[in-house]
Design a protein that fits this description.
Length: 98
């Protein structure tokens, strides 16, 4: 599937090491290399972790295609209504390549 329809839209990317990144897709290619702007990494803490979840701003961000596990469009209205510092959840494991 081509990601060209997602260009200039806000997307979420889960990387092969389990990181969650959200940003505006500026460019992509046939190898799924992605260029995002206004990128934020969401660090969701487990339920038993006393530290709050947080968002870390990265700005312009390049993700190599072999590090991309999942890409999806973000529903901006729903996304803006969520207080991401209060979200808790299990850690996403990495993708094992064989």
């Amino acid at each position: 599937m081509s990601l060209q329809p997602y260009v200039s839209k806000r997307i979420m990317v889960v990387t092969s090491d389990g990181r969650t990144l959200v940003g505006l897709l500026l460019s992509c290619d046939q190898l799924t290399n992605l260029v995002l702007s206004n990128t934020v990494e969401r660090i969701i803490r487990p339920y038993d972790d006393p530290e709050e979840s947080r968002e870390v701003e990265h700005g312009l961000y390049l993700i190599r295609g072999d590090n991309v596990a999942i890409v999806g469009l973000v529903d901006e209205k729903t996304d803006e209504s969520i207080n991401w510092n209060m979200v808790r959840g299990d850690v996403i494991g990495g993708v094992k390549h064989s």
